[in-house]
């Protein structure tokens, strides 16, 4: 970390222009130009690019880059990673198949496009349309391999409708053909997008084979982690599963520190398992900075923010997510924000807006139960709960018993029956022990509710963190044990 006082700024170079393949960099105007298009760089990014160019014969450590580009400023390694990512976007460089800037895992970065670079151009009069030199044949192989890999990433990843990003190129020493490797990943990605758990297991097998043949392919480790998260389901944060998943994600980030989704998933795991909101938020913020146009990372960060009742920031992230992916409007994110704010009327209005045009799903039904429960509309709560009875394939006898309980004693009687019979199916209140805690709260048995919450906490069950903000847990707020329980989650970092 650089800790020098703010006295003077680093200077890029006295040279005014650089020809970088098809790009012309004008260091005076901070502009990159190619084919008549211009990209204006921030002053710091221009300094960083020039520093990389003028030291292209060696690998630059992060500390050296910090001293050269951020002198006299208090910044950390994340500033370098974010700036490198922004430069790559400006240069249209793929970090998984880099043409210009290569990440050297655990060391730093190097400018690698030496076979096309003329440095310097004496002044800024070189035209952007000047013909670029011919790319050497070895680049053609990388481009073909990269294209083949891109095919494998057009599969929906966990909890998002976005397609995945292109894969890194295969290591040149791989004895297996590019087509074979691409097919392995393509098959795995397609199976991961399936709703069938057996397909996910097959995807895991294919991804393991792919990694054995391509041990330096960072997105493969990320995709394997995401597939396993789907398979682990509510058990993904249990200690043994957590250890495996974080190992895969850390390996992906070791190979490519700019994998935004790896940072987002690592943040989620750190938050739920380690109860370290400050460290989790660091990864969330880095994910957003690295992939500002990936709606997935904004969505995951929003969930974290509204757990800590940082509603304006959460809504900002949701609005960004919706702007990037209009399909996000069909989700229930805003329903939850309104609900956690105590604005039940707006939450109901958002439910009605979605329901008027969309086919409702599990997540809609969960949100609807919670909204109508807070509004005291037992009939609507039970109607939404009945959807889950069918989904869980309750037999006719059980459904009749529950209907009778509701008819005679309302929701409290239904929750009491579910609790007494230790029902394990998800009826819109998640799964045990969280669901049993919620039933116990509804029937007024706070002692049992705390016991079940402790069990959920011990196994790091997802949704246990929601007790911090979910109004369903309000009847416990004066309980000493509940206050101690909530305190374990700490307070989140504020901007």
TrEMBL record:
Annotated TM spans: 141-160
Keywords from the named record: DNA-binding, Membrane, Transmembrane, Transmembrane helix
Cross-referenced PROSITE patterns: OMPR_PHOB (PS51755)
Pfam families: Trans_reg_C
SUPFAM superfamilies the UniProt entry points to: C-terminal effector domain of the bipartite response regulators, TPR-like
Span of domain OmpR/PhoB-type: 15-113
DNA-binding region residue numbers: 15-113
InterPro entries per UniProt: OmpR/PhoB-type_DNA-bd (IPR001867), Sig_transdc_resp-reg_C-effctor (IPR016032), TPR-like_helical_dom_sf (IPR011990), WH-like_DNA-bd_sf (IPR036388)
Protein name according to UniProt: OmpR/PhoB-type domain-containing protein
Organism per entry: Cellvibrio zantedeschiae
Phylogenetic lineage: Bacteria, Pseudomonadati, Pseudomonadota, Gammaproteobacteria, Cellvibrionales
């Amino acid at each position: 970390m650089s800790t020098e006082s703010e006295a003077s700024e680093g200077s890029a170079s006295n040279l005014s222009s650089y020809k970088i393949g098809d790009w012309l960099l004008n260091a005076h105007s901070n502009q990159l130009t190619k084919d008549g298009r211009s990209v204006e760089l921030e002053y710091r990014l221009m300094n960083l690019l020039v520093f990389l160019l003028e030291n292209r014969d060696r690998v630059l450590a992060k500390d050296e880059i910090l001293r050269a580009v951020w002198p006299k400023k208090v910044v950390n390694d994340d500033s370098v990673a974010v700036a490198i990512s922004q430069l790559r976007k400006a240069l249209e460089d793929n970090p998984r198949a880099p043409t210009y800037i290569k990440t050297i895992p655990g060391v730093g970065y190097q400018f690698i496009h030496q076979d096309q670079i003329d440095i310097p151009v004496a002044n800024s009069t070189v035209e952007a349309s000047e013909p670029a030199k011919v790319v050497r044949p070895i680049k053609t192989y990388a481009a073909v391999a990269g294209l083949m890999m891109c095919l494998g990433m057009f599969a929906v990843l966990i909890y998002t409708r976005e397609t995945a990003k292109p894969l890194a190129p295969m290591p040149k020493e791989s004895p297996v053909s590019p087509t074979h490797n691409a097919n392995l990943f393509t098959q795995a990605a397609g199976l991961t997008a399936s709703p069938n758990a057996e397909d996910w297991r097959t995807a895991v097998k294919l991804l393991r084979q792919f990694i054995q043949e391509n041990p330096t392919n960072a997105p493969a480790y990320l995709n394997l982690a995401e597939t396993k998260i789907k398979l682990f389901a509510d058990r993904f944060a249990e200690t043994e599963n957590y250890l495996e998943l974080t190992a895969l994600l850390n390996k992906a980030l070791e190979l490519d520190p700019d994998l935004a989704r790896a940072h987002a998933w690592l943040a989620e795991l750190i938050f739920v398992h380690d109860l370290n909101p400050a460290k989790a938020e660091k990864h969330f913020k880095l994910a957003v900075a690295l992939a500002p146009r990936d709606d997935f990372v904004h969505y995951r960060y929003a969930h974290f923010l509204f757990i800590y009742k940082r509603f304006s920031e959460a809504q900002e992230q949701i609005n960004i997510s919706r702007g990037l992916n209009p399909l996000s409007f069909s989700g229930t994110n805003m329903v939850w924000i309104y609900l956690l704010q105590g604005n039940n009327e707006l939450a109901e209005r958002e439910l009605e807006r979605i329901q008027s045009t969309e086919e409702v799903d599990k997540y809609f039904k969960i949100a609807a139960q919670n909204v109508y429960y807070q509004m005291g509309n037992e009939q609507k709560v039970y109607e939404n709960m009945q959807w889950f009875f069918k989904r869980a394939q309750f037999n006719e006898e059980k459904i009749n018993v529950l209907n009778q309980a509701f008819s005679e004693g309302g929701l409290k009687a239904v929750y009491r029956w579910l609790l007494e019979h230790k029902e394990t199916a998800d009826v819109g209140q998640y799964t045990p022990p969280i669901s049993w805690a919620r039933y116990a709260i509804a029937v007024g048995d706070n002692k049992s509710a705390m016991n079940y919450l402790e069990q959920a906490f011990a196994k790091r069950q997802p949704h246990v963190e929601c007790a911090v903000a979910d109004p369903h847990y309000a009847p416990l707020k004066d309980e000493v044990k509940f206050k101690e329980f909530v305190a374990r989650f700490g307070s989140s970092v504020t901007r």
